[in-house]
Amino acid sequence: MTDERETGGASSAVWLVVGLGNPGPTYAGHRHNIGYLVADELASRLGSGFRAHKSGRADVVEGRLGAPGTGGPRVVLARPRSYMNELGGPVKALATFYKVPPERVVAIHDELDIAFDTLRVKLGGGDNGHNGLKSMRSSLGTGDFHRVRVGIGRPPGRQDVADFVLSNYSSAERKVLPFVVDTAADAVECLVGEGLEKTQQRFNS
């Protein structure tokens, strides 16, 4: 595979798309790991599996998102190997390696304040108590990166928030989850290919 960082103009178009989650089979089905699921779907669309990055701190897939033959935007998909509260370091390392500025970093993450089966896309903002976003903001030195916020809703009754995000989806939610993942992947494709405004018009309604 050609290294786009060495081919001149293409380097300016690289996007770093990060699926937020916790590594390992214990966490795989948790609500907190929706970013990993969307990253997996995007990797499938690129026709490639994740491989270890030379930093040893993340798994990556490189390719172009969009219809085959369209020369879509160059994307590096990443799944950090660190736990949620420490993933900023691996993200920073990848951004430095691929020379990606914060405004071309996309974080895909779970969002408590958005209902399940709903998503929102935005640029910048706080972390709203999300440890992954907090770690990214700290390591990148800014919150001015894009976010694809996949709704998981608030916990029912008095269930603790931490317990809720680190639990599996309900049986009813699992039936809808593939469509949620597919839509979030569509939103990422739209964002890197057509820009924030068109993506918000299409997916934030």
TrEMBL record:
Positions of the record's site feature: Stabilizes the basic form of H active site to accept a proton: D110
**Which positions bind tRNA?**
Y27, Y83, N85, N131
The UniProt catalytic activity note for this protein reads: an N-acyl-L-alpha-aminoacyl-tRNA + H2O = an N-acyl-L-amino acid + a tRNA + H(+)
Q: Which UniProt keywords apply?
A: Cytoplasm, Hydrolase, RNA-binding, tRNA-binding
Molecular function in Gene Ontology: peptidyl-tRNA hydrolase activity
Q: Which domain of life is it from?
A: Bacteria
Q: What is its EC number?
A: 3.1.1.29
Q: Where in the cell is it found?
A: Cytoplasm
Report the function annotation for this chain: Catalyzes the release of premature peptidyl moieties from peptidyl-tRNA molecules trapped in stalled 50S ribosomal subunits, and thus maintains levels of free tRNAs and 50S ribosomes.
> Subunit details for this protein?
Monomer.
Cite the PANTHER family for this sequence. PEPTIDYL-TRNA HYDROLASE
Q: Which family does it belong to?
A: Belongs to the PTH family.
Q: What is this protein called?
A: Peptidyl-tRNA hydrolase
Gene name linked to the record: pth
